[in-house]
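Rotation project, supervised by the postdoc (A.L.). Task for the rotation student: set up a whole-complex structure prediction and record inputs and outputs verbatim in this book. Inputs entered:
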Amino acid sequence: MSDWIAKAQAHRAKRDAAIPSGLLVDLKAAGVPELPEESLPLPYSKTEPHHPEPTTIYPKDNVTGVPSKVLSLEDVAITETPIDKLLSLLATGKLSSVRCTEAFLRRAVLAHQLTNCATDFFPEMALSRAKECDDYLAKNGKPMGLLHGLPVSLKDQFHIKDKEMTMGYLKWIGNIGKQNSVITDVILNAGGVVYVRTSIPQSLMRCETHNHIYGRTVSPFNRSFTPGGSSGGEGALVGMHGSPLGLGTDIGGSVRVPSAFNGLWGMRPSMHRVPYEGAANSFLGQESVSSVIGPLTHSLEGVVTFMRAVLAERPWEMDPILVSMPFNEDAYALKNLQLKAGSAEPAEAFTQGKTQLCFAIEWDDGIIHPHPPITRALREVKEKLIAAGHKVIDWVPYEHLRCYDIIGRIYSADGGEDIKRSCDEGGEPVMYNLMSTGQDQPHLSTFESWQLNQEKSKYRKEYLDYWQATKDKTGTGRPVDGIIAPVSSWASCKHDLNDHVSYTTQWNLLDRPCVVFPVGFVEPEKDPKVALENAYTALPGNVDQIYWDRYDPEEWKGLPINLQVVGKRLQDEELLGLAKVIRDAGATLH
Amino acid sequence: MSDWIAKAQAHRAKRDAAIPSGLLVDLKAAGVPELPEESLPLPYSKTEPHHPEPTTIYPKDNVTGVPSKVLSLEDVAITETPIDKLLSLLATGKLSSVRCTEAFLRRAVLAHQLTNCATDFFPEMALSRAKECDDYLAKNGKPMGLLHGLPVSLKDQFHIKDKEMTMGYLKWIGNIGKQNSVITDVILNAGGVVYVRTSIPQSLMRCETHNHIYGRTVSPFNRSFTPGGSSGGEGALVGMHGSPLGLGTDIGGSVRVPSAFNGLWGMRPSMHRVPYEGAANSFLGQESVSSVIGPLTHSLEGVVTFMRAVLAERPWEMDPILVSMPFNEDAYALKNLQLKAGSAEPAEAFTQGKTQLCFAIEWDDGIIHPHPPITRALREVKEKLIAAGHKVIDWVPYEHLRCYDIIGRIYSADGGEDIKRSCDEGGEPVMYNLMSTGQDQPHLSTFESWQLNQEKSKYRKEYLDYWQATKDKTGTGRPVDGIIAPVSSWASCKHDLNDHVSYTTQWNLLDRPCVVFPVGFVEPEKDPKVALENAYTALPGNVDQIYWDRYDPEEWKGLPINLQVVGKRLQDEELLGLAKVIRDAGATLH
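Outputs recorded:
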């Protein structure tokens, strides 16, 4: 066994040993199959990157029902309490943070046993912090902040002072956090309790979750399927109700895909509103398309709470790249949409007591067709919005393939240098050549990367003009308020197959905020397999047809179906207001 | 004569021929020496970039008094009317835009004859547009926008549809604007009248103004001195009152230096508030430190009017990179500084009816010492602010040399490729190797440029923390509100010597907004030459001592002395409020 494999296995064993045995559940006794350990090095297909053989060693079970069987009634009740209610109980002392944290610790460990979602547990630190919160409330009679006493889970990119963190790279074994990442401080300043960190794919540049140290994370809805990624540990953990609020990052879909694949609400905020300063990352210094931090949670309230709590801490005084915009409550209440375009007078619909908005539906992106369940969800949401009095038009995608090409070249502008070096330093091989990590791409010169940035800027300008021009089609006097779109062409898939991400990268290149919301679950009778007419052929390898053919209603049964709503850049609060309109129209699952 | 020289001279002759002869003044009759034409190619010193021989062929005269001798009383009165008053006259029809534009056209042509500041005149287009404004007002009884009828001058980077523009490069002779730059549209939408474009240095990357097509622009205060650059054409034009509002750009001081050298108010806004989309530039696609558009004008009101007018046009609906922040009137009124830090309660000083702020003075940057007149100005401003009830502390620069080094490497990250190609395409030689244009620098790979970005980000973070930590020293409960600093170590200098720009680049790297304001003029009796003790030696070539030794009170006599106030990133309106406090304390010339 080579050195790096031994080192990886030892580190994984160290993680497992750190879990207090009192928190572990005897899965065998509960009749739940344990997860297999894949042997290292993990599967890698260079020749057929778009359709390697799916792994078949994972059980095809849905384990989301396990907690209610093996945890106490009270633990289940606490961990399934809606976040706004939970925060209210914590802020008033009706539930102690210690008790709440114990419940989430137990459920997080169980989620981890079932899905392999965690990289670290911090039971002692968390319970000590929870006691601090309880004591503060008792002494001061008021909560610490908007997240008072709430357990919050962190993706394995966010430093905690004095805690080791690897971000899934061998090279960072032994890497002790010199100080908290700014987001860690912000969460703590707002009263949060950090208790677990969660897994990621090697390099982060993949919408699955799989690395040499911690292995593979699986979907709780079907363990032979991927929970998505790169924030897939969060996806699986929050999907299992092992966390009320998880923090992921998104440079190409890495919050949204795991939110979608685990039936969650999630958000990719606009760049430079949530502090990334002091977090670990791939491609540090790459500023052309930035990764952003966003929440994965069970409700719109969870997303709103996250944004409110972060912005209340004035993070722009801690992270110099941030835009100094406090949470705009008026925008969340859509007050700006209640005015006539370019005027201080109220729009007509509003004077009549209506709140008529215009949404557009992106039925497909012209690159790959969504599976039938996704299309059904789009149809259902459209109907609900119309029933609620809103306008809904079709969104004709504007050259999304061009966008997909540009962002792929931005990701790989260093010819894979960053990832190669990171792997080399730890002695481990590069695992995948999938999501444009640049292993086979040319390393651009600075001048060439400037030319690429110009391609990006030109596309952004054309898209903005295209969006603005819709004001002639909406009947509201405004351009389209929000686009409702797939997050992925499918509702997850078997491991190692989730390689096509144009539905998410589109909005990263344009820096548009997106909120992901759950619509329902795959139901074979409603979502039968049909023939694909006119498959798109622009991508190499017949991807559209191949992805379409993989759909099997029985296999997909019960998998969550999610969509996203896309807003205007930096108008994150308005977008949350739009998401609330969609929720209030009954178009979301909850 | 080589081809490119003939081509450059022909294009310059074309410009001259386009000036209606009725607008030209007979300078000989007025007893004013004409400007010499320097022979091409223009001087270039590779061996001693920091102290080439100054050109000696220019007259050492101050020509700012010429207009009042050769123009009509009414033209002088119109062109010297404060901008707020002028806008009020225009908006109420008491002065027609046509009459106003005629006056500024005449004075701009005169300014050009005296300083060689213009690249294009558009008399027909401007007068036709002015008439459009007048007709609009007559018909609608209200002005077009916040700049109704006002002549506005543009740096030679801003496209006008169907008009040729070169940006001083031979390669762009014959380059016809396909459409307006967004800023041109914004100015027009706000009611402005575009009538002249102004000169720049080759490549824009220099704080002087000198290119092969249009030659050299000189300071109206001493024509053997530079007006600064790269917006030096604007500096000289506005300095001559040939424009009430000029638009420049600033990536390292290019608005601020010519504002300072011509006794003007000027502003470098934060990145991404004023639309750059569709403008010509060097280094297109370089996003690490962006150039920003800012105004050069005669008063604080001119600066505020510019920002209000631009932001009122919702430019973020036209330029996808912009931050969607309307002009924040509360911030301009400093309402946010009237609260206790982190609280909704008013700060103590304000409850007592005072508006106590804390400014810090940057006496020098630890790289190069300011000349005696600059230091005197800092001292005078400090006294005025204290007399007005504010606190003033010393600003200890935080590793400004490190910042100067980083930004120099960012400018030259392409090893000069962009400039080399631009020159090659026009067949002209590269003129200077001065302001880190990278001719002798290595061309970084994309990966290397990412590492450089990390150096920048680390410095930005440290500086933010450093600034925030001053809240323990200010006595206001807040960090320092604004830094008052030199714009340059001197109040201009002889041509070809203005190569040291650390006082301005500092705030570009940190993306801090800056407002430049006039304090007075060099007076030999108040600003005697003294010995420099402890010259800084960190820069090669003994720059500090050499620059200090150049000072000659008699030669500098009458040159404007300006300073800048530096604010918080994206808090441009608060910074304007701080500038108003400085003005209202009597610390500015006007």
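Student's summary: Chain A has 22 helices and 13 strands.
Supervisor addendum: Chain A has one domain: 3-37+58-584.
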